Amino acid sequence: MKHPKSYDTNSATRKRMSNVHLKRGKTENKLALALWHQGIRYRRNYKALPGSPDIAITKYKIAIFIDGEFWHGQDWDNRKKRLKRNRDYWIKKIEENMARDKRDDALLQEVGWLPLHFWDKTVLKNLDYCVELIQYQIRYRKEEE
To answer: Partners of 55 in the beta sheet?
Structure first.
């Protein structure tokens, strides 16, 4: 029989993990809607590009990714030290994610796309900043034409 405390922890972890969505999460929807209201048109989860960007502004070749802090290794050197359970698994998994992100960014740049990454919490707390940064990049890319 499992120790009650570990069972509770596993149950809580299972519940938390079941709420993780890979596509069209709350944060992605919030940023997409804000861009739409600014007249910026885009494709969602655009599979024609490396990494299937959450939002792809095809007219200006801007690929936007909204990255979860845990999954994509925000402050990784410190966060890695705090991992307790399944440490080897999570270190390998997250470092693979980080390597894939770099690889996808390089592939996007090779074909003339600008990859932009926003942390999930940055979008939630500073939506206007994120929209302004995207608008700035659109203006910059318009000037390059």
So the answer is: 44, 64
Assign domain 22-144 one CATH number from 3.30.450.40, 3.30.70.260, 3.40.960.10, 3.90.1700.10. 3.40.960.10
Q: What share of the chain is helix, strand, coil (3-state, %, to 5)?
A: 60, 10, 30
- pTM of the shown model: 0.81
Average pLDDT over residues 49-58: 96
Contact (CB, 8 A) for 66 and 56 = no
Query: In which region does residue 7 sit, left (phi positive, over 0), alpha (psi from -120 to 50) or beta (all else)?
Result: alpha
The partner residues of 67 in beta bridges, in order of sequence, read 119
Distance CA 85, CA 108 (A): 35
Q: What is the pLDDT of residues 79-135, one digit of tens each?
A: 778 778 888 888 888 889 999 999 999 999 999 999 999 999 999 999 999 999 999
